[in-house]
Amino acid sequence: MGLNLGSIVAALGGELHGDAGLPIEGLAPLETANPQQLSFLGQPKYQSQLAASKAACVIVSPEMRVQALLRGTCIVSDQPYLYFARVTQLWKKSLGPAAGALVHPSAVIDPAAMVHPSARIGALCVIERGARIGADTELKSRVSVGENCVLGERCLVHPGVVIGADGFGFAPNAGAWEKIEQLGAVRIGNDVEIGANTCIDRGALQDTVIEDGVKLDNLIQIGHNVRIGKHTAMAGCVGVAGSATIGERCTVGGSAGILGHLEIANDVHISSFSLVTRSLPKPGHYTGFFPIDENAAWEKNAASLKQLHRLRERIRAMEEKLKRLEK
């Protein structure tokens, strides 16, 4: 099943240069697209691939219009990558709804759970007592939703996700550990996507909260009582310790870690493999790498590292003074 360029532009807008009736049979990257496929140029640094591409049509920015027209058919959009994302959505809709029952016969749903009639529940899912699943939300296979946890509307939860396992709470007791019962739940807003095998712990007393539009990649750990603000996105293997609060529109790179009880402002961007050890009260891009060492040596080096900028300025001032004395 395919679309033609005219139907794509009619649905999504954009400025078409070429035959509106040209059929599109697939979507592909510039370097591998064939004459029946649609592609896009997201960044000018890849424009060398544009001239050589065999794609039937390429989505480009206004700045790349001339180069694209030299190659052939194109759609001009202010945001080519966003336009391409919407083409993928349009393409999926053209394939029609998934076949089969909305609730797979192998799914186990407690009678006291509430699942909206439009929700889709995959094979081997478990939805426990008091859980609620909103309209048009889809759980892929082997998703577990714990007691009293809530998912909003239009969420997509990939295979193996666990929502509402106990948070990691234990009190020391004479060299052993006493369990702190986790009495909260997990509340997930609308339009949230959660990647495969990600775990979101229930709160100890208050709920763990994932707000609207959050996107979580695969293999992420969200500790108990964490709060993640609207439209924040996290890449794979991120770990967020308990009671951290993360603002809206943040991004967290793969394998980064955020310690517990910290507060991250809105519009903070954390590089992959960084370890966030303090609250970040201002928007911005943050990076934190440091070689592994014995802890005592690491702490001394870290303390020294914070003084390097001031030390550099002092050395520069001394060098200037020496130059003047030499004259």
Considering the chains and any ligands shown, give keywords for the structure.
alpha/beta; Udp-n-acetylmuramoylalanyl-d-glutamate--2,6- Diaminopimelate Ligase, Chain: A, domain 1; UDP N-Acetylglucosamine Acyltransferase, domain 1; 2 domains; nine-stranded parallel beta sheet; 6 helices; flat
**CATH fold name of the largest domain, please?**
UDP N-Acetylglucosamine Acyltransferase, domain 1
Query: Strand sequence of the main sheet, in spatial order?
Result: 8-11-14-17-22-25-28-31-34
In round numbers, the mean pLDDT is 95
CATH architectural name of the largest domain: 3 Solenoid
Secondary structure class reads: alpha/beta
The count of domains is 2
Rounded to an integer, what's the Rg over CA atoms? 26 Å
Shape call: flat
| Regions with little confidence, pLDDT below 50 for 5+ residues | none
Can you describe what's shown?
- The mean pLDDT is 95.
- Strands 8-11-14-17-22-25-28-31-34 form a nine-stranded parallel β-sheet, with no helix packed on it. Strands 10-13-16-21-24-27-30-33-35 form a nine-stranded parallel β-sheet, with no helix packed on it.
- The chain has two domains: 3-94, MurE/MurF, N-terminal domain (Udp-n-acetylmuramoylalanyl-d-glutamate--2,6- Diaminopimelate Ligase, Chain: A, domain 1), CATH 3.40.1390.10; 108-286, Hexapeptide repeat proteins (UDP N-Acetylglucosamine Acyltransferase, domain 1), CATH 2.160.10.10.
- Helix 3 links the parallel strand 6 and strand 7 (74-76).
- The chain is built from six helices and 35 strands.
- The longest helix has 19 residues, at 308-326.
- The protein has 327 residues and is of the alpha/beta class.
